[in-house]
Every structure is written in structure tokens, then in C-alpha cells.
Design a protein that fits this description.
Helix content is 25%, strand content 20%. By secondary structure, it is of the alpha+beta class. The strands form 4 sheets. An 8-stranded antiparallel β-barrel has the order 12-13-14-15-16-17-18-19. Strands 3-2-10-9-8-7 form a 6-stranded antiparallel beta sheet, with helices on both faces. Helix 1 crosses helix 12. The protein is globular, with a radius of gyration of 23 Å. This is Beta-lactamase family protein.
Length: 472
């Protein structure tokens, strides 16, 4: 059974009754990504959604008026255990490591140790970026415009050898990635291996290990005492850290995987610590934290280089208020940092389950609605009555890309199950005789009619159209 307990606070004013009421509304007001037009919005309890997505533990910190207004932990660090998640529980935060690593690069730039637009090979001593017609710069590495390989970094289990960073860069065993070789292009191509190259460049330029440098320059000045770039944790810290869990909610072997590519995805942190980091970015951009990061560097970080990505952060300029954010997705963990650049608002949500991304978004929608943000509101889609007699022709299993969707009936409801939809079957809401959408996921499904006979093909749209074919 999931133990749901709110533990501790990072803000002295959290005991205020009005804030308690606000937190309760958020905890009981989770929203799905899609709402049915003309119907009252469905709201859900955090405890129920943690069970739905099989996420044992969650940590939340909310920023308001330029400070952490409240922070709470929910659930447990390990499925089946009793140790509660608190605001001080460390999680792996995946690619939320990148903004923190980017700040370190900008701090070294401000100190004259590196230059954003010089050939990074001028600073690399222990390894060199293979030569291309266009030199690779630190700015290009930070903004994913260096043409570096696109390769997911799944980490290394506790029972297998872990490579050194140089073995990763050379693509040598036991590293599982290809050599870090740029293509020579300058289009946006998200590359965690590019951040591995940046990690080595900063260490070589400073003469200090990356983790120690980040701790001294970036983390410690903000009081981020529960944060560290590390593949493994000291025993005392590991004992209270959140374990990673698979889609079924089972603890990962060894509790987590190890990441030597620290700048890309090797940060352990807490929701309040990352909220402190987001506040520091807001203050630095306003010019009120120059001893940590000068305003010029902060503004460079929040300036788009290509495809709504700045230096280490994703940027959103579509609304009235510009925002910066980054998500993280190590195996067993999901994370999201979101903050407005000028209003002193934002939030950090950490989850210790592979099925946690929909949950993280549902929580963020509830926070956004409660605090009156312009982002994260559900999209509305009209539902159209369907001919339920056709449902039997849809029932079956379909091969879609490299996975399988299973379609089945529950009375007059059509349900769909499969990895793209998460650990639980989702109801397909009719949008016509052959078209459907989902409340729990921003995706659509359309069956190709077959004259009343069993449908043979369909199209599943989840960011991009994916055709499917009935399995025998």
C-alpha cells in the first residue's frame, strides 16, 4: 500500500491556514492534460494518481514572490518500505543537471577561465573533439548546436563496470555509447554526450574535478546542501535517498543506476535545492546576484540560441511572461524545474518512478491553476457520440512502431493499453465513429474503417503519427 504523508516544510509561513488550504487544493486538484469541452473539469487526488502511475514518492517545492513558499514530500523512498519522502530527500534529477552544469560554465566564463565562443579544444587537455570544418565552442555544446551525437545515456547498473569519462568520450568499453564525434552541423540536436565533452573541458580548464568545482562555485553558495554531482552517494546519504522504480513500481536493482556523465544527468538534488537554484537564476537575470552569476551571463543563459533552447535551459517566450525550464528522465526517475524569469514564481517536482512523467505534469497543472499561471492549463477537445456497435471491430492487438497497443471493451467504453500510454489502460474518448482521444495523455487514435469487419490498421498520434497494424 502506498503511504502518502506530507513531510516537513522549507518555509516558515507554511503553517498559515490560508497556505494550508492552498496546498490542500493543489493536492486534491490534479488535472489531466486533456479536458472534454463543455464538461466540468475532472480533478484528482495526488494519492490516487501516485497509485495510478505506480510512483512511490514525490517531492514538490513551489516558488512564489521570489522565495520558496512551501515544500513537501509524499509517499516513500522505496516501494514496500516505510521511510517517508521529505523535502530533504535526494533524487536523481536526470537532465535537470544540465542547467546547473551550464551555470558552472558561465561562472567560469565570467572568471575568464573559459570563453563561450572559442574552440573548446583550446581548453581540452586530456581529450580533443575530433576536428571538423567548424570548431566546436562551449556555447554550441551548451545549446545543443555542436552537432554532437544524439544518444540516450541509460546509466550503468551496480553489477556492471562503469567507464571513466574519457572512455565515454572515446566510445571505449565498458562505455556503451559511440565515440563523441561531431557531425560538423550547427542545427539543434539534443546531445547529452555534448555535455559530457563540456564536463571534461571545464575540468581541464580549471584543473579541478568537475564535481568539486560545481560544489564550490555553484551549489554551496546557494545553500544547496543536499545536492551533489555524483555517480554514487556516501552510505549515509544513500540510505535516505529516493530509490528509482520501473513502470510497475518495482525498485530498480541496486536502487538506482550510476551516471558518470555528471554534467548531462549525474546530479542528485532535492526539490527545495533546485527551487533555490531557480530563484538564483531569476535574481541573477535581474542583476541582484552578481557575486554568484553576473547579469550578462544570466541573460545569455536565457537567450534563445536555436529552437527555443538557450544555454542549458529550454525557453518559453510564447506567453506574456518568459519562462525557463528543463525536464529530467533517468531510468527510475522523473523531474521538472519550471520558473518564470521575471515574476518570482515557479515550481520543482521530483518523482521516483518511470511512470512519473504524467503525474509530474498533473501536479504542475494543479499548481499553475492555483497560482494563476498562464501555462500548463489543460487543452479542450470536443467529444462526439460514437456508434458503440463499431467497438467490437476495433478490439484486438496492434503493432505500433516497436510496441503493442491492446484495444478492448468495458461495456460501452473502449479501453487501450500499452507502453505509450503508461502502466494502466486508458479510456478512449470518442471524437467520431472512428476517432478517439485520451484525457490522461495528449494523444489521439484513429481506426481505419473496414466495412464493419475487424479493423486492420490504425494511426496513433503521440507527437507524431505512428501507423499500426492488427496482429494475428
Amino acid at each position: 500500500m502506498l503511504m502518502l504523508a506530507a513531510c516537513g516544510t522549507a518555509a516558515a509561513q507554511e503553517d498559515h491556514p490560508q497556505l494550508q488550504e492552498r496546498i490542500a487544493r493543489i493536492e486534491n486538484g490534479l488535472r489531466e492534460p486533456v479536458a472534454v469541452a463543455g464538461q466540468a473539469a475532472r480533478t484528482m487526488r495526488l494519492a490516487d494518481r501516485m497509485r495510478q502511475w505506480r510512483v512511490p514518492g514525490v517531492s514538490i517545492a513551489v516558488i512564489n514572490h521570489g522565495a520558496i513558499e512551501w515544500a513537501r514530500g509524499y509517499g516513500v523512498t522505496d516501494a514496500g518500505g516505510s521511510q517517508p519522502v521529505t523535502p530533504d530527500t535526494p533524487f536523481q534529477v536526470g537532465s535537470v543537471s544540465k542547467p546547473v552544469a551550464a551555470v558552472l560554465a558561465l561562472q567560469l566564463s565570467a572568471a575568464g577561465k573559459v570563453k563561450l565562443d572559442e574552440d573548446v579544444n583550446q581548453r581540452l587537455l586530456t581529450w580533443k573533439v575530433p576536428a571538423t570544418a567548424r570548431p566546436v565552442t562551449l556555447r554550441a555544446l551548451l545549446s545543443h548546436t555542436a552537432g554532437m551525437p544524439e544518444f540516450d545515456l541509460p546509466g550503468y547498473g551496480v553489477d556492471v563496470p562503469m567507464p571513466t569519462l574519457l572512455q565515454v568520450l572515446h566510445g571505449q568499453k565498458p562505455a556503451i555509447n559511440p565515440p563523441v564525434t561531431p557531425s560538423g552541423g550547427n542545427d539543434y540536436a539534443y546531445s547529452s554526450l555534448g555535455y559530457a565533452a563540456m564536463q571534461q573541458a571545464l575540468a581541464d580548464a580549471s584543473g579541478q574535478p568537475f564535481d568539486m568545482l560545481a560544489s564550490t562555485m555553484t551549489l554551496a553558495p546557494l545553500g544547496m546542501r543536499d545536492s551533489a554531482f555524483a555517480p554514487s552517494l556516501p552510505a549515509a546519504v544513500a540510505a535516505r535517498a529516493a530509490a528509482g522504480h520501473d513502470l510497475e513500481g518495482t525498485v530498480l536493482p541496486g536502487r538506482w543506476r550510476r551516471h558518470i556523465e555528471l554534467a548531462a544527468d549525474g546530479l542528485w538534488s532535492t526539490a527545495p535545492d533546485l527551487a533555490r537554484f531557480a530563484i538564483a537564476i531569476q535574481r541573477a537575470a535581474a542583476g541582484t546576484l552578481p557575486t554568484w552569476l553576473p547579469q550578462a551571463q544570466a541573460r545569455a543563459m536565457l537567450t534563445t540560441v536555436r529552437d527555443d533552447y538557450g544555454l542549458g535551459v529550454e525557453l518559453d517566450h510564447a506567453g506574456r511572461e518568459p519562462a525557463f525550464h528543463h525536464s529530467g528522465s533517468n531510468i527510475g526517475y522523473k523531474a521538472l524545474l519550471f520558473a518564470y524569469a521575471r515574476t518570482g514564481q515557479g515550481a520543482v517536482i521530483l518523482a521516483n518512478g518511470d511512470g512519473g512523467w504524467p503525474l509530474v505534469e498533473e501536479i504542475m497543472r494543479s499548481i499553475a491553476i492555483e497560482y494563476g499561471w498562464e501555462d500548463f492549463h489543460p487543452i479542450e477537445r470536443p467529444a462526439v457520440p460514437a456508434k458503440t456497435a463499431l467497438f467490437d471491430s476495433y478490439v484486438g492487438q496492434y503493432r505500433v512502431s516497436n510496441t503493442t497497443l491492446r484495444v478492448f471493451r468495458d461495456g460501452d467504453r473502449l479501453l487501450v493499453a500499452g507502453p505509450p500510454l503508461g502502466p494502466q489502460p486508458l479510456e478512449a474518448v470518442p471524437a467520431g465513429d472512428h476517432g478517439f482521444f485520451f484525457r490522461e495523455k495528449d494523444a489521439t487514435l484513429r481506426f481505419d474503417p473496414n466495412g464493419g469487419q475487424p479493423v486492420q490498421t490504425l494511426t496513433f498520434v503521440d507527437g507524431r503519427p505512428r501507423p499500426g497494424k492488427r496482429l494475428p
